[in-house]
Amino acid sequence: EERSCGRTTIKTVGRSRLVPSSVCPIFECEWAAASEVSAKAQIVLEVRTSSRDLIASTSVPIVQLFHGFEKEEEADVENWVSLEGGAQILLRA
What we know:
93 residues; mainly beta; two-stranded antiparallel sheet; 6 strands
């Protein structure tokens, strides 16, 4: 899904399945970005209810997620990202 918001283009590249409410939910969502993605690109994370009401969200620059990661390395990337309201989400790649 791709849409424009002013001069910004927003492209949805992945969504997780609906996850039952729990203290430590696990969201699994595979996505891929083209190699020509701008260094200014942002990943927008949104946590919603089953009725699509927004619970928490944040926006993270792609360069922040992969900081220190070299293309040639076969290492996993893990980053904790803070959401509004004090929640955190662990992103793994």
